[in-house]
Amino acid sequence: MPAAGSADSTRDKILRAGEKLFAADGFDRVTLRQIAREADQRNVAAVQYHFGSKAGLLAAIVDDHREAIDARRAELLAKAESDGTDDDFATLLSILVEPLAAELDSPAGRAYLRIQAQGLTNQEMRPATRNLVARIGRHLGALEAEGGAPHRGRFALLLLFHALADRASQESSGRARRTDRAEFVLALTRSLRGLFTA
Q1: Ordered DSSP codes for 122-137
Q2: Residue 81 pLDDT
Q3: Angle at Cα 76 formed by Cα 70 and Cα 78, nearest 5°?
Q4: Using CA atoms, how far apart are residues 178 and 168, in angstroms rounded to an integer?
Q5: I want to staple 32 with a disulfide (CB 3.0 to 4.6 A). Which of 44, 190, 192, 194 is the partner?
Q6: CA–CA separation, 97 vs 9, rounded Å?
Q7: H-type helices in the chain, by residue range?
Q8: How many Cβ atoms sit within 10 Å of the Cβ of residue 31?
Q9: Which is nearest to 77 in space by CA: 114, 41, 129, 113?
């Protein structure tokens, strides 16, 4: 039986391999054999041992990132509450976008954003994210009462994840510089607000 450190290392290699392949080729096109090969494993049994299935691997990848994103949102919400800006729509949208944009800092994060844009996952939201979405929902309810289109929430999610996935691809290939990212995040946040308030 392998040592615990060895098992953790194998699990992490498989996670990173899955991220890379799912982001590049799409979940449906990637096989367990490809994941095992990318993770330097002899056969698919290692993937199945650690994750059960390809879907189990996808869920683990998403969970890994969502936990960190939710923790950052909790910090930002607490700061907004202490500043008295927690009911400001622009602030709430910024709290929605900023932790996701921070995922651009690492190859694993950029892969996660590209995976999310595939629309494959619909797992339960973490506590801070659920709180944030409820607050944004209250603002949207007021906008809908004023005659807003009922599809805006879906459009906003598509814009959010596809814009970030595109940015992840651009930064990975060198077509976009990290120094321009703050401008990108601000433009994305303003675009979301414009979509909701148009």
Answers
A1: -PPPPHHHHHHHHHHH
A2: 96
A3: 105
A4: 10
A5: 44
A6: 31
A7: 4-25, 32-38, 45-51, 54-83, 89-101, 107-116, 127-145, 152-173, 181-197
A8: 13
A9: 129
- Inter-residue contact 188 to 98 (CB < 8 Å): no
Q: Take residue 173 and report the two structure tokens written for it.
A: 């290939």
- The alpha carbon of residue 149 and the mean position of all alpha carbons in its chain are separated, in whole angstroms, by 25
Q: What is the pTM of this model?
A: 0.85
User: Which region holds residue 53: left if phi is over 0, alpha if psi is between -120 and 50, else beta?
Assistant: beta
Residues 162 and 192: their CA atoms lie apart, in Å, by 12
Alpha carbons 121 and 138: distance in angstroms, whole number: 24
Structure tokens at 139: 């603002």
10-residue mean pLDDT series, the chain (198 residues): 60 96 94 96 93 94 93 96 94 95 95 89 78 84 61 84 95 90 95 86
Distance between CA atoms of residues 37 and 148, nearest Å = 50
The candidate with the shortest Cα–Cα distance to 160, out of 187, 125, 197, 178, is 187
| Residues found in the chain | 198
Nearest one of 104, 71, 128 to 185, comparing CA atoms: 104
| Cβ(94)–Cβ(141) below 8 Å | no
